[in-house]
Amino acid sequence: xxxxxxxxxxxxxxxxxxxxxxxxxxxxxxxxxxxxxxxxxxxxxxxxxxxxxxxxxxxxxxxxxxxxxxxxxxxxxxxxxxxxxxxxxxxxxxxxxxxxxxxxxxxxxxxxxxxxxxxxxxxxxxxxxxxxxxxxxxxxxxxxxxxxxxxxxxxxxxxxxxxxxxxxxxxxxxxxxxxxxxxxxxxxxxxxxxxxxxxxxxxxxxxxxxxxxxxxxxxxxxxxxxxxxxxxxxxxxxxxxxxxxxxxxxxxxxxxxxxxxxxxxxxxxxxxxxxxxxxxxxxxxxxxxxxxxxxxxxxxxxxxxxxxxxxxxxxxxxxxxxxxxxxxxxxxxxxxxxxxxxxxxxxxxxxxxxxxxxxxxxxxxxxxxxxxxxxxxxxxxxxxxxxxxxxxxxxxxxxxxxxxxxxxxxxxxxxxxxxxxxxxxxxxxxxxxxxxxxxxxxxxxxxxxxxxxxxxxxxxxxxxxxxxxxxxxxxxxxxxxxxxxxxxxxxxxxxxxxxxxxxxxxxxxxxxxxxxxxxxxxxxxxxxxxxxxxxxxxxxxxxxxxxxxxxxxxxxxxxxxxxxxxxxxxxxxxxxxxxxxxxxxxxxxxxxxxxxxxxxxxxxxxxxxxxxxxxxxxxxxxxxxxxxxxxxxxxxxxxxxxxxxxxxxxxxxxxxxxxxxxxxxxxxxxxxxxxxxxxxxxxxxxxxxxxxxxxxxxxxxxxxx
Length: 705
Ligand SMILES: Nc1nc2c(c(=O)[nH]1)N[C@H]1C(S)=C(S)[C@@H](COP(=O)(O)OP(=O)(O)OC[C@H]3O[C@@H](n4cnc5c(=O)[nH]c(N)nc54)[C@H](O)[C@@H]3O)O[C@H]1N2
Ligand SMILES: Nc1nc2c(c(=O)[nH]1)N[C@H]1C(S)=C(S)[C@@H](COP(=O)(O)OP(=O)(O)OC[C@H]3O[C@@H](n4cnc5c(=O)[nH]c(N)nc54)[C@H](O)[C@@H]3O)O[C@H]1N2
Ligand code: SF4
Ligand SMILES: [Mo]
Prior knowledge:
By secondary structure, this protein is of the alpha/beta class. The protein has four domains: about 5-50; about 70-135 and about 345-440 and about 450-520, Rossmann fold, CATH 3.40.50.740; about 155-340 and about 530-555, 3-Layer(aba) Sandwich (Dimethylsulfoxide Reductase, domain 2), CATH 3.40.228.10; about 570-700, Barwin-like endoglucanases (Beta Barrel), CATH 2.40.40. The chain contains 24 helices and 27 strands. The mean pLDDT is about 95.
């Protein structure tokens, strides 16, 4: 290390791996360098380029440094007092006219990696009585939250694939090389899978996109998009007809009949055409899974974002359970955790709304209703606080959502940048970043392959007038005359709030803060006994394999199956696609990620066969359209895509973001203009949006002119 410099340990908060990092501070106290923490007991020097580029976000001259107020002449810098006063005045007016129903909050994905920010947003909502608490989860994993609540009693309980001990691993809707997994936190997921393969485990991916760069790890079964629930049902059906479901593992459990009757409706021969896989491959998959000594299943966002993510996730639980792999080594296990799961209580009934019934998991309404709820005549949302999010690009709605957000009486964004959503805000408020605040890796508790707790200090003072999200929200609460986190005796809000959740497991903020490098490695939980414990907590009796609250999702399966069966054979389906070059919309302003042409925007990927059938070539501009909207995109070819499937990345569409000039120079298009919104756009049991497997039409641009 150079003289005058100091090294400080921290961890990445861009994705669920939370890689350990080491920052070097120069003699001025500025962060000069960021590198992987090679001494980290769990992540062991693993990190990706995105995590290291967080330093460029920290130093980016385009970052928000002061509160910015939108005026007729564009955005103008203002003092905090002025911002808070104006926000409080406008908010009070909305509360007076509409009550708390007139106010909404949207918590973006980075709230998952901001221990105090997330807590404070919840407290802000509770203090003001705000029920419209939207978050990125309904675009990501609300199906998992819902099934967790209904089956296991908590949105936070998710048995993870025990990769290290499994003999057979089924991985649906995940691309571990690009995204590094979700709801299964492990450093170097590709290396971990490769090690499993080397020791003899069989691995199968299920994905419309062949994961060719992981072909040595496992074969991809190239499923038709948005049909995974039927594949899973058919596997269950084959297991039922071969060996029955009434096994030692399910003995005495409630509602086995419901599971059996559901599975029987979807034999492999019946679903083969809809899922686009030969019946014999499905039968084989069922035998591989059922006959492996230890089999594990991991299902991720590619399935979550289909129309039936909750059904698919429930079926994953059932497959794991009936094959004796749930809560068992080498199967799916409840990982150890230092933050106990928040219990959901009895599943709430479906909420009846004019846009259809839904059950909000964790109280979250469907993101796909945001525009409708703002534009509603009877009970409109008139003020919206967007905390670390970019709903204009990340949720469905396109121009209609833009119009709705633009017409609000108050739109406030707290962010690092004036992103596409913040451009529409009355106030764009400058948030402190990862290096400018303390934090705790709370979100991944319970889904870590190697469980641990990590604390980070703030490494530097917030630059300029940047402030932590909790500070901003607390100032607004205070201005309205409500108690806030500023009132916590001793001023250590993080400690006061998180100690409350940690004490049950015998941990404390002080203990983590003073642990070497702020890390406490937790012993892995011994599998076994969890279902009995869950049943006791939930009903005091026996485990319910199919609680009533799931029936609404089971009932949708047949009508959706019929409509998929009836689709025209040439119907193109648009799926999601993440890339190495982006993290949702978060890194759009980094020049370094825009140097490679392939990374600059978001082309429409198509299989060479589909392109030649349509006389299209790479580089052509095409119109992609459907009933929801239309975008014009450059065509790129990808031979790994199943014919009939096209793919595009979200998080682009920065043509109107002067506050993010690099992003604006390479704007790309908002793929969510093509996603359904409003009534029918979400899964009622989970409020999860439908964002993959969307029917589209692709036209050569010239042909319409
Ligand atoms: N079509 C389609 N749509 C999708 C997806 C898809 O695959 N396809 N994926 C979905 C998924 S999985 C997700 S998670 C969502 C993401 O959706 P969102 O969370 O709405 O959006 P992000 O693009 O992640 O934007 C996060 C914003 O937070 C800012 N930020 C980062 N950290 C902080 C912080 O600590 N504090 C504050 N105040 N701001 C911060 C960033 O600058 C950025 O502007 O998008 C979803 N939308
Ligand atoms: N580089 C990068 N890393 C990221 C992110 C990012 O934007 N960029 N985002 C982070 C976030 S917020 C999240 S939630 C995680 C997500 O992490 P993952 O859930 O692992 O997500 P993806 O890598 O997008 O993998 C989804 C896969 O599903 C496939 N797919 C699409 N539709 C279907 C379908 O109908 N059925 C099946 N079986 N597969 C389908 C897609 O081809 C894709 O390969 O990634 C995180 N990490
Ligand atoms: S894998 Fe995720 S947590 Fe690790 S450095 Fe990359 S973005 Fe950060
Ligand atoms: Mo996500």
